[in-house]
Amino acid sequence: MKEQLEEIRHKAIQHIREAEGLKALQDIRVSILGKKGSITSVLRGMGKLSKEERPVIGEIANEVRNVITDALEQKVKELEQIALDKKLQAEAIDVTLPGRPVPTGGPHLLRKIIEEIEDLFIGMGFEIKEGPIVETDYYNFEALNLPQNHPARDMQDSFYITNDLLLRTHTSPMQARTMREYKGEKAVKMICPGIVYRRDNDDATHSHQFTQIEGLYVDKNVRMSDLKGILDVFAKKLFGEDREIRLRPSFFPFTEPSVEMDISCKVCGGDGCSVCKQTGWIEILGAGMVHPRVLEMAGYDPKVYSGFAFGMGPERIAMLKYGVQDIRQFYLNDKRFLTQYHQA
């Protein structure tokens, strides 16, 4: 029996050394050390041995089992290392090769325009305010002198969520909210940029979702000349020092008097061309003196306080400044368009 165990050990070590894979090692383990393995088969004959021989054979069997187990574990480590070396060799990186350039992103053209406008007005003492996109009917319309059934509401076809909630049609509600927050006790000098929504058919110049920047200045002795001066600075800083502005009478329910502001066409210099439709001027924003009724509803005494408000669309400004022909380009995520203006 001792000779049988030694024979098993010798053959097992030889087979382990010749094994070329983990499956072959598992087969060897089962055939020798398993419940039906060769060592177990030999040990079944121990009943025929004398009491003196049994412990000797048992010790030899344990020694053979340990030697085979150690050899199996060592072979597993060798095979795993070989596999790892092959994988590392296959995945080797030649660090001497030039690196691949990683494309970098940049600010969206609209974001750049908005930040440029924000910086400009911050420099003139305005603060930035942000308001909710889902707005109440009161702040979106009534607080801005647009009561229920007012015909001017038709100018802003709206997305209603409930009878009292809607997606804001302009960022002007934040003007009313800010004045109410100040309780008619201090001056207001703010702009509010943000996304607005109106039910409109999307085409080259219209979108159901777009951005707006509204501005408000309320204090004692604020005059129309102050409004014109600030708008003149805005136009020259954004479009060039040679730009001229003009104010034309218009109508907005929340301002009185109301005006539209035009800038001189940068293409023709005011002489008239296809861009400005031969007029020499391009409309850019609406403005006016805050309606006394709006001041009253916000808690300000219109006999003491006065102010002006203005509203502009960053998409229109970007289209005029950079020659973009289709407003939909701002929202299509076309990388060719987006990267075109990184250095603009």
Automatic annotation (TrEMBL):
Binding locations of Mg(2+): 256
Superkingdom to which the source organism belongs: Bacteria
SUPFAM superfamilies (UniProt xref): Class II aaRS and biotin synthetases (SSF55681), tRNA-binding arm (SSF46589)
Keyword Metal-binding (UniProt): yes
Annotated Aminoacyl-transfer RNA synthetases class-II family profile domain residues: 110-340
InterPro entries: aa-tRNA-synth_II (IPR006195), aa-tRNA-synth_II/BPL/LPL (IPR045864), Phe-tRNA-synth_IIc_asu (IPR004529), Phe-tRNA_ligase_II_N (IPR004188), Phe_tRNA_ligase_alpha1_bac (IPR022911), Phenylalanyl-tRNA_Synthase (IPR002319), tRNA-bd_arm (IPR010978)
Keyword terms of this UniProt record: Aminoacyl-tRNA synthetase, ATP-binding, Cytoplasm, Ligase, Magnesium, Metal-binding, Nucleotide-binding, Protein biosynthesis
Cofactor annotation remark: Binds 2 magnesium ions per tetramer.
Class of enzymatic activity (EC top level): ligase
Iron found in the keyword field: no
Essential cofactor(s): Mg(2+)
Location(s) in or outside the cell: Cytoplasm
CDD domains, alphabetized: PheRS_alpha_core (cd00496)
Record EC number: 6.1.1.20
Primary subcellular site in the record, as a coarse category: cytoplasm
GO terms assigned for molecular function: phenylalanine-tRNA ligase activity
One Pfam family, short name: Phe_tRNA-synt_N
Catalysed reactions listed for this entry: tRNA(Phe) + L-phenylalanine + ATP = L-phenylalanyl-tRNA(Phe) + AMP + diphosphate + H(+)
Listed HAMAP family: Phe_tRNA_synth_alpha1
Family the entry assigns: Belongs to the class-II aminoacyl-tRNA synthetase family. Phe-tRNA synthetase alpha subunit type 1 subfamily.
Subunit (UniProt): Tetramer of two alpha and two beta subunits.
The protein's name in its UniProt record: Phenylalanine--tRNA ligase alpha subunit
